[in-house]
Amino acid sequence: MIQAIEPAVADLLKGLPRELDNESDRARLVPALQFALTTYGDERRPSGETYVEHGRNVVGALSELGIVDTDTVIATLLHDTLLPQFKVTDGALIKHFGREVAALIRGVKTLDDYSKQAGRNRQAAPDNTDERQDRDTLEAIRRALLSIIEGDIRVILIRMVDSLQDLRRAANMPLDLQRQVAYEAMYIYAPIANRLGIWHLKSQLEDLAFRYLEPEKYREIARALDEKREVRALKVERAATRLRKRLRDMGLKATVTGRPKHLYSIYRKMKRKELDFTQIYDIQALRVIIETPEPAAEDAAPKAISKDKKLNAKARKEREDNERDLCYQVLGAVHSLWQPMRGEFDDYIGSPKANGYKSLHTAVIDSETGQKLEVQIRTQRMHEEAERGVAAHWLYKEQDTQVSSSSQRQIQNLRELLVTLQEDEDEAGVLDMSKLEERIHVYTPTGQIVDLPAGSTPIDFAYQIHTDLGHLCSGARVNGKLTSLDYQLQSGDKVEIIKGKRGKPNRDWMNPSLGYSGSARTRSKIRQWFRQQEREQNIAQGREVIERELKRLGLLELFTVEDIAHALKYEVIDEFLSKVGFGDIHTVQITGAIAVMQQALRAEDEDLRPLFRPPTSKRKGVTVRGMEGLHTRLAACCHPIAPEPIIGYITRGQGVTIHAQSCDQLKGITDKERLIEVEWGTGGEKYPIPIIVTAYRRGGLIEDLVSTLRGQQINVPKTKLVTTDNIMKVYLIAEVADITQLNWLLAKLENLPKVIKAQRQSWS
């Protein structure tokens, strides 16, 4: 088959992972490569790379993580084909490569689209600061992640590696694009890589992004590292040789190497601990990887798990205990060679990090030379998981993609954290992805590990265990001692909750500034409790808030509660009112919605002026006592209609204007001589009255209006329909015989299905 394809495709095939070097995979890959070459041509990305080169490089980086199934490779090669310039449709991708590939490509493009849209928004508001612009970009991508994480995790894996490849070529990009790519990598994809345990990606993303976000700091640390690199390398190798010899003497097989410390981690430690570069001891580091027997079959293939699950669980426990014992033997060897530094030991095997990371960390000092050294100790299996994280357990089949149970837990954990971030956004208006890394581990009284956000309190712990336990929480013991409910838990704490018999949440727990909760999820559960308990009260209070605001603005007769609810996209009015009453919807949002509706009405009024222009012709239905042939017109302010009591006002050069005797305009008239008596005539005059019918959108409304008017033989010379969201407004001129017929018509129209109100309108 390879001989029958063009040389360019053959070259691309050679650059793909060896795992795909078989006939069945080639049968799918060759058409994909041909499609890529035809679609992309020689077009280049902003980095100068061709789209074909970029796709192949991203595939290579994914291959390093062990992600080499055919669908993912094809989607990666073609992930830019949905860009507008290539004119490829979703349907074409489904037809040629199947729904799964198309879904992956569409997901990657969604993330890219959010980023570009944020860029366009920034260009539309050039007065924004760089910080605000960058935050807009991050917010857009975060929102996309919150939806994509519920689908195929491979979308994010592809996009993370795509981001890494962009960073590798960022030197050729414009400065503003360099910054945008670096921000996405540092504040979106590096934290997610860390949460999924993919250290191999996290460290590269952070270092490269650091180079473009803080170029001066990057160069400063890089220069400091280069100055004595050879001397440090010699010292580290000397220490590694000593440790290798000691481990061989103990009969342990292990690889001991100098561990490169990446620049951004040095910078973070300097910043966090306010230290100078010379005070960072773990720039020199050793990594010990212990050789162990191959993993049991059940870990490599979940379907191969024995029917005797208890036996398998026992075997896994024995293997884990054996690996931990080996790590502690190595730890003993390290501490026998060098003096351990107080407070610089971490057991991430007994208490793994939230992303599943397992290792022993220690820091030692050579008493003879004064050399400080950090040492990491782990098994080969732990090392694989630390470098590749969730990707280390990925199992691919021809038509089925699944992950191991440990990876599923990591992915579920990430989903839960992203939901928590979404709740944080509801409170603060901004999502903070750094919280993906800020976690602590505490223990229940029975020794179970509970993962919580840093800054959590006993109340957060209670709600994490069970919502009802949180509601009943009245006190807590931490490490056997009574403590306050606002105490900030530390990793390793043992927490016991004291339950009240009829306890209930305290409103103060919802206030982040009071420190009773460090978790937005906890506050969300407390809010939900109060909503359920006080729903009717909140609805009444919400209605009062809105009506008070409308009254303050003098718009109580113009807009209703329902108008504002629909303007804020709420279909269920009670739900809207309860949120207003509870405080989830603030007054500023209500006044904003009113302002938008007023603006829309002003625009509508401009369009309707020709429709609602008062008639100026001589009226036959009005008699002016003692005078004949005078030009008369109905006043636009009150537009009277028979048999309302009326009065005439002589205007200069415009004849007589007919007002209702109750018209407010007459109260300010000082020249009473210009008022004259008038009366309705008996000539069967029809009076054109402007009417507005407001209704929820529905089919058949216009037909019902026409039928009602036709039944009374009411002529309608002018009409106009305006639709805003799900609200319809019908503006019409109805020619009625008298006020009795007008009142009947308004009542009839208002009783039609879905009609909110029908009201007479003054002339513009």
Please give a handful of descriptors for the protein shown.
alpha+beta; 22 strands
Number of DSSP E strands: 22
Mean pLDDT: 76
Strand order of the largest sheet: 1-2-5-4-3
Main sheet specs = 5 strands, mixed
Q: What does this molecule look like?
A:
- The chain has 764 residues and is α+β, with helices and mostly antiparallel strands.
- Helices cover 49% and strands 16% of the residues.
- It has 26 helices and 22 strands.
- The relative contact order is 0.04.
State the gist of this model.
The protein contains 26 helices and 22 strands.
Question: What's the arrangement of secondary structure elements?
Answer:
Blueprint: H1 7-14, H2 23-40, H3 51-64, H4 70-77, H5 90-97, H6 99-124, H7 130-148, H8 154-168, H9 175-195, H10 199-213, H11 215-227, H12 229-249, E1 254-258, H13 263-273, E2 285-290, H14 297-300, H15 309-337, E3 339-347, E4 360-365, E5 372-379, H16 380-388, E6 394-396, E7 401-403, H17 405-428, E8 439-443, E9 449-453, H18 458-465, H19 467-472, E10 473-478, E11 481-483, E12 495-499, H20 520-533, H21 535-552, H22 561-567, H23 573-582, H24 587-608, E13 622-624, E14 632-634, E15 646-651, E16 655-660, E17 675-676, E18 678-680, E19 687-696, H25 701-711, E20 715-724, E21 727-736, H26 739-750, E22 755-760
Parallel strand pairs: 2-5, 14-16
Antiparallel strand pairs: 1-2, 3-4, 4-5, 6-7, 8-9, 10-11, 10-12, 13-18, 15-16, 15-17, 19-21, 19-22, 20-21
Helix pairs in contact: 1-2, 2-4, 3-8, 4-6, 5-6, 6-7, 6-8, 7-9, 8-9, 8-10, 9-10, 10-11, 11-13, 12-15, 21-23
